[in-house]
Amino acid sequence: MTETQILQDKRRKYVPRGVSNSNLNIAQHASGATVTDLDQNEWIDFAGAIGTLNVGHSHPKVTQSVNKQMDSFLHPGFNVMMYEGYINLAEKLCNITPGSFDKQAILFNSGAEAVENAVKVSRRFTKRQAVVTFKRGFHGRTNLTMGMTSKVKPYKFGFGPFSPEVYQAPYPYPYHKAEGQSEEDYTDQMIEEFKEFFVATVAPEMVACVVMEPIQGEGGFIIPPKRFVQFVDSFCKEHGIVFVADEIQTGFGRTGKLFAIEHFGVVPDLITVSKSLAAGLPLSGVVGRQDILNAAEPGELGGTFAGNPVACAAALTVIDVIKEEHLLEKAEHIGQTMENKLEELAGKHEFMGEIRRLGAMVAVEIVTNRTDKLPNKQKTAEITKYANENGLLLLSSGLNGNVIRFLAPLVITDEELTKGLSILEDAFEQKEKVGGFHGKSHSSI
Fold first, then answer.
1. Which residue stretches of 240-326 are H helix?
2. Per-domain residue ranges for the chain?
């Protein structure tokens, strides 16, 4: 029995099956956009730990910063004794996020924690209870964030009851607008539906915050019309509602700007950040208006491990790397290259529906055909299975599990990108790789 097989057996025995695995091989080391497993097979990474590795695996500047911090101390606990990494990162986040108003930043561990605390401070500030999210949105796996999340299976089924006073508003899905309907008319329709929601479902005076992903991640990389996002922002301002941009998957250069909300000409009151903030180390934050974040009394916010100094060291370096290595411009290059390949493949495959992207946040919807546009979950699973058995880490998404999404590290080389797209092409055509390998890799345990 190989070491890989021994570890796979241990995983089945000791790790609950509720934790899914797209790929059952065992990582040994990783650099840039390539992961090498215990059997020395190389995998091009188009998943990026679900959007966590915009600066890639084991970036040398990040690992150097992490090692330096580890030599000093691991975690005195910010509530017990402060340290400069937390304070300097808070300052940097306040400086790089949109908005010229006075800001503050508070740090946590996970994206779900950041969202929960954005809700907490919004409720404290407004003295209201209701929370509005959007259909197809995803905000986490804690009890509150499960309630805020739209997709029932696998995220919510059997785990209720959920926190009360959470409501889901309509969110545009331009690919599925009525045939012949113009973009302008569709946007008007969605704005009217949004306004009607606050008549039929929850009154604005009850709402503490509206939490929106500028581009829906788990929902299928759905990009809303700019005018819709601007209307939501103006509606919130009119009614004293805190507008929260959930940038956990879209932030730190993924879309070609530091934050996706910048594409829409909107400045949110609060922004939640995590994932690529710390290059794979657990760290998250809420950044935004000082008057909102400062509303809570001492002791009402925080957490034992929140703002760990090792993760803060990584994050401070990540922000520098994004600028120094021109990763915002690189994101557009990666995204355009992917889009060009997908357009080429669409000429061969009727099951390829809409190709969507903003920067390097790229997706293709897999359908039965382009006329009916019905979700084709089976074909999506076949494509991701083939990729994960032939050297490409690849993920799906979407309410119906029929969207293939691409979250390659922004440091990916042209050689890695070309290799990954070649495997993707084979996956779409289901061709056997000549001279390749066929790991038994894709399955849920």
1. 290-293, 309-324
2. 3-55+326-429, 62-324
Q: Are 216 and 398 in contact (CB under 8 A)?
A: no
For residue 26, the SS3 value is coil
Max distance between CA atoms of the chain, in angstroms, equals 65
> Smallest Cα–Cα separation from 44: which of 319, 387, 306?
387
Retrieve residue 268's tokens.
């949110």
**Any idea what DSSP says for residue 201?**
T
Spatial strand order of the sheet with 270-273 comes to 103-108, 284-289, 270-273, 242-246, 207-212, 130-134, 166-169
pTM check: above 0.70 = yes
Output the six-digit token pair for 427.
């996956």
Topology of domain 62-324, per CATH? Aspartate Aminotransferase; domain 2 (3.40.640)
CB-CB neighbours of 94 under 10 Å: 16
Q: What count of Cα atoms within 13 Å lies in the side-chain half-sphere of residue 256?
A: 15
Of 337, 357, 305, nearest to 418 by C-alpha is 337
Long-range CB contact pairs, 189-193, < 8 A, 24+: 190/224, 190/225, 190/228, 191/227, 191/228, 191/231
Q: Do domains 3-55+326-429 and 62-324 have the same CATH topology?
A: no
Report d(CA 334, CA 412) in Å as an integer: 8
State how far the Cα of 82 lies from the Cα of 364, in Å rounded to an integer.
Answer: 46
Written as tens digits, the pLDDT of the chain (445 aa) is 999 999 999 999 999 999 999 899 999 999 999 999 999 999 999 999 999 999 999 999 999 999 999 999 999 999 999 999 999 999 999 999 999 999 999 999 999 999 999 999 999 999 999 999 999 999 999 999 999 999 898 999 998 899 999 999 999 999 999 999 999 999 999 999 999 999 999 999 999 999 999 999 999 999 999 999 999 999 999 999 999 999 999 999 999 999 999 999 999 999 999 999 999 999 999 999 999 999 999 999 999 999 999 999 999 999 999 999 999 999 999 999 999 999 999 999 999 999 999 999 999 999 999 999 999 999 999 999 999 999 999 999 999 999 999 999 999 999 999 999 999 999 999 865 543 444 444 333 3
Cβ-based neighbour number of residue 238 at 10 Å = 9
Closest CA to 213 of 134, 140, 299: 134
- Residue 35 pairs in a beta bridge with 30, 43
- 212, 243 contact by CB (below 8 A): yes
Give me the architecture of the 3-55+326-429 domain, per CATH. Answer: Alpha-Beta Complex (3.90)
Place of tokens 């289901």: 430
